[in-house]
Amino acid sequence: MTRVLGTSIEPASAPRTQAFVRDLRRVTLDVIAPTYILDPNFQFVDWNISFENLVARPLGLRLGMHVISFVNQLANLDSVLKRSVRVFAPGQHPLCDTEALVFRSEKFGEIEFQKIASQILDESGQKKAWTVSLNISRAEKWNELWKDLSQWIEKETLWSAFALCSNLITNHEEYVRMVRGLQISIGKVDSSLELGSTDPRLALELARAGATSWIVQPSQTMLEISRSRMGGWVLEQPVTTVRGSFERLEDFAKHGFTTALCLEGMPRIEDPRAVFSHVKRLLRPGGSFHFLAHLRGGTNSLLDSLRAEQVSKLQGQELDSFEKTMSLLNDSFRRFSPEELTQALTGAGFQYVKFHNRLFGDSALSGTAKA
User: Fold this and answer.
1) pLDDT in tens, 352-369
2) 247-267 in b/e burial notation, b at 16+ Cβ within 10 A?
3) Of 60, 83, 167, 197, whose CB has the highest number of CB atoms within 10 Å?
């Protein structure tokens, strides 16, 4: 029997190994040093949580912007521009390029990155994109920077684990009943925006009724889960799933939505007033924002309610994993009181807030806010 040298573990079959590695590669971007991806025109198409928090958010960068919007903020801008004229001459782009970039962070002081950029080629050998990693070689507040980087990546990993267990909530009879009621209440609309949903059923139903539906996901794992759960639906107007931060929804301003929803995403909101203000601006006058908020002190009630519904050993194992994840997320899992919700929503400009039903043993509260 063939074994891997130095181990007592049998190697996996080639197809299984390939699928395993392929799945890992998709999410690896989220848990490494600051990294971003550019299209052939040097516009941002994606970045990871480290780049988002360290560079993009402080500078107000958005996906679709040209990389010059970042380069212009560098402390060594002059030398970077002079070098780019020589190294990136038309028709002479290198396959791989490295250089030092110096960035002044308000929080961490001066940071020196050792950039490594590489072309990603398509099947015909043509440039498809650039991937750029910023390896940190120096920082004025070195310890503080690495502490925050570790916390960002740890939190992203935990939210991914939470998303993988999300079907325990979305398949619960109380959640399914709530979604059916919302579908009837919302009726036929021309556009909808949903924040952080791994369960696309409502967005798909609205799209089938003629709505232009968008789902915004804060992580690659959530994006992959929601897309995988869309299988089997054939729609004239497909649901669009994109990755983006709840706190940075400016890119959707040009659309204007009739309805917005945040049923699974509320625990992940870091700044409720900011997110609700963005949602309010994206809604047309008279539009509705439907939400499901988890209440303070309701963790045990939620877990007890989910455990009461488990019908198999496998679900029990999933629930054990879910419970551990909830424990590790701890203060990162946003919970509200009804009063806090009302204050945050009205403070964001919503005209009124109406609460509907309590779910999962009184651990969650559904409601609607009118723009």
Assistant:
1) 899 999 998 888 999 999
2) bbbeebeeeebbbbbbbbbbb
3) 197
Q: What is the model's pLDDT at position 238?
A: 80
Walk me through the domains of the chain, giving residue ranges and CATH numbers: 32-140 (3.30.450.20), 166-370 (3.40.50.150)
Helix pair 313-329, 299-309: axis angle to 10 deg: 170
How far is residue 202 from each of residues 139, 211, 246, 319, measured CA to CA in Å? Answer: 46, 11, 19, 24
Where the chain has pLDDT below 50, the residues are 1-8
Supply the pLDDT for residue 365. 93
CA distance 116 to 25: 18
Closest CA to 34 of 113, 106, 107, 104: 113
- pLDDT at residue number 6: 46
Question: Per-residue pLDDT tens for 226-253?
Answer: 888 887 676 767 888 888 888 777 767 6
Residue 368: Cβ within 10 Å count: 20
Count of CB atoms within 10 A of residue 150's CB?
Answer: 10
Q: What is the pTM of this model?
A: 0.80
Cα distances (angstroms) measured from residue 277 to each of 77, 184, 250, 332: 35, 26, 11, 21
pLDDT value at position 225? Answer: 84
Q: What is the pLDDT of residue 302?
A: 79
Burial track 48-84 (b if 16+ CB lie within 10 A, e otherwise): bbbbbbbbbeeeebebebebeebeeebeeeeebeeee
Inter-axis angle of helices 313-329 and 142-164, to 10 degrees? Answer: 150
Nearest to 187 by CA among 167, 202, 200, 173: 202
Report the 10 Å Cβ neighbour count for 94.
11
C-alpha radius of gyration, the chain, whole number: 23
The identity of residue 191, as a single letter, is S
- Scored b (16 or more CB within 10 A) or e, 19-30 reads eeeeeeeebebb
Q: Token digits for 32?
A: 């490494």
Number of C-beta neighbours around residue 33 at 10 A:
15
